[in-house]
Amino acid sequence: MLLFAAVFSPTSAQAQVSLATVVDLAQRNSTAVRLAQADLQKANAVLEQTRDAYIPSAELGSGLPAFPSVGFTGGVPSILSGNAQSLVFSLPQQQYIHAARDGVKAASLALKDTCEQTALDVSTVYIELDTVDRELEAAHQQEDLAGRLVKIEEERAEAGVDPLSELLQAKLTAAQFRLKRLHLETRAGTLAKQLATLTGLPIGVITPDHASIPEIPAISADTTAHILSGIKSAQMLALAKQKTAHGDMLSGFVPQVSFDAQYLRSTKYHNNADYYYKNDLPTTNFSSGFSIRLPLFDLGSSAKARESSADALRATVEAEQAQRQNDIQVATLTGTIRELDALAEIASLKQQIADEQLHAVLAQLELGNGSGNGPGAPAQLSPKAEQLARIDERQKFEDSLDAALDLSKARLNLLRSLGHMQDWLHELHVK
Asked: 125, 130, 197, 245: which could join 309 in a potential S-S bond, CB 3.0 to 4.6 Å?
């Protein structure tokens, strides 16, 4: 409530929002989740409809004549009529009920799968925006350092220490960092727009909280895999269609028993029905009974059964195809993660080396090179070397962030493909 009050106030500003909160908002706002919820409601309604075939349905009506009848019409006008009917025994209907139950399970699993996919999408955007914000901070620092380097080179060029090309190179470096900063700002704006679209919040009000992002476990294809909810849903849907096809096949061979009841309150208003019968017709009439339907020859039912069988076969093949595609994705992601893991390690080591080199440069600037000024001694470092070392350290820091981001994305996708996304979401909410 405090979050929404801050977000939708006239003077709303950016606020740190945890990843768990963003995931919850995205799952509530997602159109895909709402569509899956509608499919689940429809599946429940279909199940109720198939079961309600055994519950008598009743209706009332009236058939008062508008004008006096002439001759024998074959029917008796009624003040009130009532009909009730229900199914008593039907093997096909039992199959339809089982199919509808499987349809509910399939819709429920599809909803779960959609929620997990929404969580993956918004988590990826959130983590990337957090990384870009940190890179953008480093880019601003690089731009400031490049500006100082340009001033130093201007002074050195005026003093005749460095040629003009060094000044031009420094200006080129500053321009490149300015372009990089603009690129990162554009990227951050795009990610903020995506985050706003996913959560339903205004653009720019969410600032990622890095501490709320749990560690993504380093899993591989050797980890015990769970069948994805989406694949389970496809398998359950195929099973439902198989049962529907079996019910359609039975409908052309097995008998069906139904119950019917009728009540009629007849009237002699505007008719002379008694004239055509030996005895006067009673005012109150009621009848009930069981009707048995025994199919003998119905080409339409046979064609419908073949159609249902084809649908069931297609659904079965689609479920198998989804499983195979997921297996291929797991194998691909596993190989990609090995490479990204090595790249992230290399980038981290380069960043550490650049940091140590920066400390060494700062120490030499403060204490000297330690070799004196004699012949063969290395030259004393200048402030230009400090700016270059700081720029290089920031660049290696950004490269390390990019490598870690690519590795995190791949690991999240592998978690999803192996069916462990829900475990990570649990850790997310616990954190």
From this structure: 245
**266 domain residue, yes or no:** no
Q: What is residue 337's predicted lDDT score, i.e. its pLDDT?
A: 94
Expressed in angstroms, the distance from the first to the final Cα of the chain is 20
Residue 334, helix vs strand vs coil: helix
Tokens 């985050």 label which residue?
Answer: 195
Cβ proximity of 7 and 202 under 8 Å? yes
Cβ 181 vs Cβ 139: under 8 Å: yes
> Has residue 305 been placed in a domain?
yes
Rounded Cα gap, residues 390 and 402, in angstroms: 19
* Beta bridge mates, 207: 16
Decide if 282 is inside a domain: no
Kindly compute the dihedral angle of the four CA atoms of residues 98, 102, 104, 110, in this order, to the nearest 10 degrees: -170
Going through 267-377 in order, the beta strands assigned E by DSSP cover 284-293
Kindly report whether the global pTM for this prediction surpasses the value 0.90: no
Range of the domain at 238: 14-55+90-254+295-369+378-430
Amino acid 267: pLDDT: 79
CA quadruple 232, 235, 240, 243: dihedral, nearest 10: -140
Rounded Cα gap, residues 54 and 90, in angstroms: 10
Strands, E assignment, 274-404: 284-293
In order along the chain (431 residues), what is the average pLDDT of each group of 10 residues? Answer: 46 74 94 96 96 92 75 73 92 95 97 96 96 95 94 89 90 95 96 94 91 86 85 96 94 91 83 71 87 87 92 96 94 93 95 94 77 54 87 95 96 93 84 64
For residue 200, the domain's CATH number is: 1.20.1600.10
Q: How many domains does the chain have?
A: 1
In this structure, is residue 288 part of a structural domain? no
3-state secondary structure of 300: helix
Q: What is the pLDDT of residue 236?
A: 97
SS3 206: strand
Q: What CA–CA distance (Å, rounded) separates 25 from 21?
A: 6
- Spell out the SS3 assignment of 208-222: ECHHHCCCCCCCCCC
